[in-house]
Structures are given as C-alpha cells and as structure tokens.
Amino acid sequence: MFLQADPALISAHAANVAIQAQKILAATNMAAPMICGSAPAGAEEVSAEVALSFNTQGAAHVAALNGAAAILAEAAVETEGSAATYTASELINEAAMLA
C-alpha cells in the first residue's frame, strides 16, 4: 500500500482552511465590542469591578481566538507552499527519470 499525495487537492483544502480562519477572525472581531463592552449594572464600585472583570475576560477570549485564527491561517499558507514544493519535486524527478 502506498500513499499518494494530490498537491492540487492539498492546496484546495489548505485554501479552504485559510477561508475558515478568516471567517473566525471576522466573526470574533464583529463580536468583540459585545464581548468586551460590558457596562456596569449600577453606579457602585462593585458593579464597576464586575464589568471590568467581564471586559478583561472578554478581551482575553478575543485575543485567544484571534491568535488561533492566525495560527490556522499560517498553517494553511505553509501547507499550500508544501503542496507547491511537492509538485515541483515531482516534476524534477519525472524529468530526471525521462532523461
């Protein structure tokens, strides 16, 4: 049993992953004001501290999602590059065999 790689298919899937990463990034950035914009429920100090805590946690959540989306997009770009390199290597090997 042999493994056959289809660089065009790999590249297509990598492009799809990059699109999904962009969608995650866009959705996170669209939701960020709601996640990070809690207003204090009242004028007292406790309400202000609770709102600050929610906003801090929300900002950390947004940063984590944006970081994950960036890693996903970078992996997609690397995978597309690997597929192109694989194709080039196959062409070189084929030319060498025919020579």
Would you spell out the secondary-structure blueprint of this structure?
Layout: H1 7-36, H2 45-98
Helix pairs in contact: 1-2
Summarize this structure as a short list of keywords or feature phrases.
99 residues, mainly alpha, Helix Hairpins, 2 helices, PE-PGRS_N, PE family
User: Helix and strand string, N-terminal first?
Assistant: HH
**Strand residue percentage:** under 5%
State the helicity in percent bands: over 70%
**Distance linking N and C termini:** 28 Å
* Regions with little confidence, pLDDT below 50 for 5+ residues: none
CATH architecture: Orthogonal Bundle
Number of helices: 2
Determine and state the CATH class: Mainly Alpha
Tell me the overall shape: rod-shaped
Domain tally: 1
Largest sheet: none
Determine the mean pLDDT: 92
In total, the number of strands is 0
Gyration radius (Cα, Å) is 23 Å
CATH topology: Helix Hairpins
Write the CATH homologous superfamily. Answer: HP0062-like domain
| Structural class category | mainly alpha
